[in-house]
Amino acid sequence: MFLDRMAEETEDIVAASLLPHFDRSSTYALWSEESGLVVSPSSSRLPTFNQLDLSITGHLDHSRPRLLPDSHIYLAFYPHAVLNRGPIFGRLDLSSSQLSLAVIRYPKGAGKFGQRVYGLRPDLLDSWIRLEDILVEIVTYLLKTFPSPLPELSFPKLPYQCGYRELHQFPEQAVSCAERAKEAYTLLGALLTFTLTLYIGQYRASCFAAAFDKLLRWRDVSFTQGWLGQLEESYICNLTLGLRTGAFIDPYNCRWGPFLENFVKAGIPLWVIWGQPTTYNQFKSGVKDSGFPSALFPMDPNVIELAKLRARNQPVEAWSNRGKDAPQTARSSYEAPTSDSLSREHIDVVCGVFMVDETASGATYCPKSFWPRFSSWETCGFNNGAWSPDAETFYLRRLSKISGVNPDIMGASAWRRKGGIKRFEPKMRPVLQSSTKHAKDFFRIKFS
């Protein structure tokens, strides 16, 4: 038993060290009237659809996911929080007031026609230039030497193109150019993270080892192994899920299909827009031949119907039995399940697990459900987590609305027995917490 326990612990450690990967059973089927079927490998929420408009030359808000063309796919790696910290990026951690203090007046003769001009002080200017040159150098080398052909990319506006290296007639101009350059460094950082992700490995601790080893073998390097170590500690190599914006993907025109699993490993949220059934049925074979991951293909029609039901903003009855003989309506409606206002407790209390029955005719999706975690009942006013007739009535009615058929609650009897909760809850915990051990046997959908 000791060896078995050691084997299980070792397996858990290895699993924890692995980066996320594609799994058909853990993908989400989402539906919107505008976009039709959307499949996501990492998110149960469907953000507002936006499309990148390349005709806009001014400032763009890159914090919202957009439908990106292949040439700008790296914008999916734009960070929600720019952490200009540490020995590499700390030089950019300057507010507008600090940049104003960093702008100096250069002597007469430095500018055109001998007038006084303004610019960043020399030490800061040289520091920014060195950083830009190294980052561009790394990105260019890793893209040019990638072992297989890549779709063509359009580089973002680079920092030097914002004018921070130039001298200006007024100090306000120098500050404005420096601020625009800071944003350009963030875009360049997103491009660098994207480029490193093309080389990503399986394990979190050594995910960029292949790219870093390649850089260290490069003869013309202008950085050291220690500098790469500092880069690895920066936000550039931070793969925390949700740190970056993500993107909508058009599977019919996207040529980055073979690399989408790399994006998922890097924690990038993706939403693949398949549209209406007539559209994706017509083009499915062509997409399959392009190397697009099969795990993101349209799902079983029954699951799609469930996604449609889930997207409806239906009134939801919530029962409370505190001192009442009959249930009463506590809330008349919720927002759609994509709403950020949906609490974790409400997600838990109406979580359904849909069992996959393997039959001779293929896999079918039976709407069954495990009893929710009893700790959720207290939060929702269900008598401190214990079973009650009102709680069961609510759950039965909710599942009936979701599935359209009479649901079969598995394990409800355990709640009726004294002490049954404690024996039953440990068995349900891994399922309701998306345990990978059950991922192949259950398709999990959360409802509002």
Provide structural commentary.
The structure is a single chain. By secondary structure, the chain is α/β, with parallel strands linked by helices. It has 3 domains: 22-71 and 241-289, no CATH class; 84-237, no CATH class; 299-446, no CATH class. It has 15 helices and 14 strands. The strands form 5 sheets. It has a 5-stranded mixed β-sheet with strand order 1-2-7-6-3. It has a 3-stranded antiparallel β-sheet with strand order 11-10-14. Strand 6 (247-249), helix 8 and strand 7 (270-275) form a beta-alpha-beta unit. It starts with a helix and ends with a strand. Residues 1-16, 313-388 and 401-448 have low confidence and may be disordered. Residues 317-339 are annotated as: Disordered. Residues 329-339 have a biased composition (Polar residues).
Name the features.
globular; 3 domains; alpha/beta; three-stranded antiparallel β-sheet; 448 residues; disordered C terminus
Placed side by side, the strands forming the largest sheet appear as 1-2-7-6-3
Topology order in helix (H) and strand (E) letters? HEEEHHEEHHHHEHEHHEEHEEEHHEHHE
- Tally of helical segments: 15
Distance between the termini: 42 Å
What's the Cα radius of gyration? 27 Å
Ranges with pLDDT <50 over ≥5 residues? 1-16, 313-388, 401-448
- Oligomerization category of the chains in this entry: single chain
How do the helices and strands line up, and which of them pair or pack?
Layout: H1 2-17, E1 28-32, E2 36-40, E3 66-67, H2 86-89, H3 96-102, E4 103-106, E5 117-120, H4 122-144, H5 171-197, H6 209-216, H7 225-232, E6 247-249, H8 260-265, E7 270-275, H9 277-289, H10 301-311, E8 319-320, E9 328-329, H11 344-349, E10 351-359, E11 362-366, E12 368-370, H12 375-379, H13 389-403, E13 408-410, H14 412-416, H15 420-432, E14 442-446
Parallel strand pairs: 3-6, 6-7, 12-13
Antiparallel strand pairs: 1-2, 2-7, 4-5, 8-9, 10-11, 10-14
Helix pairs in contact: 4-5
